[in-house]
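tool_call predict_complex ligand=adenosine-5'-triphosphate
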Amino acid sequence: MSNAAPALTHLAPMATRASRLAAARTDYAASESIKAEVRDLNFFYGQRQALKNVNLPIPERTVTALIGPSGCGKSTLLRCFNRMHDLYPGNRYEGEIVLQPSGLNILSPQVDPMEMRLRTGMVFQKPNPFPKSIFDNVAYGLRLRFVRQRSILQERVEKALRAAALWDEVKDRLHHSAVKLSGGQQQRLCVARALATDPEILLLDEPTSALDPIATSKIEDMIFALKEEVTILIVTHNMEQAARVADFTGFMYLGALVEHGATSQIFQTPKNQLTEKYLTGSFG
Ligand SMILES: Nc1ncnc2c1ncn2[C@@H]1O[C@H](COP(=O)(O)OP(=O)(O)OP(=O)(O)O)[C@@H](O)[C@H]1O
Ligand SMILES: [Mg+2]
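tool_result ok
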């Protein structure tokens, strides 16, 4: 693709920043171990196939972004990781998502979807705190796991709120209603709620699309700090955000994963013409 470089120069500064931020986590084959692996995944909403033979490695303690036009299957793929699709009849998976090091296939009928939702925490586009206190929101998953001792709950709630970069803003009002927080605070609370059960993977579906630039940058800083602890899979329509926060990026189109690789490679030298067209805005 000889004309790729000039066409994508407007993205180069972002990719450079991403490379700096992503601190050399750019090679699947290098040091990282793989936290999860999507293998030959097909997904059907009834008769309608929404994912087509997706194969994707997710390196441990990195951020992987999923990008692609509306309706291409990004959220559908994310929801496979925590078995959200099991909540609706007629949905069907084929293939595997294997968690490492256990080798557990998330999609196995023997795996309890409820347990999977605690092990792969998900945060949605629109913040959805429960109409309970800040404390009770974060403690929710712990209580589902029968953690009852007050001191342990307090310790775990504080740890999750600190990890979500919200502790300082709420530590004096933990028993106030969560729905009175600002949108950006509510979203970080949802991240804290997802983190409280020590998930193996954190799934973020357009977590900043409803937020202003300041709240967005707080979430991005938080994502950057969190990847030291947890493997993150994020869906975003914001290409600058993908370039800023993601070590790896996958481009999806019509239910297929067209291309995936180091974010700098995808943005600067995409191998597939569809990826290039999408990134340069000359799609369709
Ligand atoms: N509950 C559902 N039942 C049937 N089809 C669905 C359902 N949810 C999504 N789809 C279809 O599956 C395809 C993928 O949808 P999905 O929500 O995964 O796309 P997306 O890439 O997340 O899009 P967006 O960027 O708009 O959020 C679309 O064609 C959509 O219409
Ligand atoms: Mg979506």
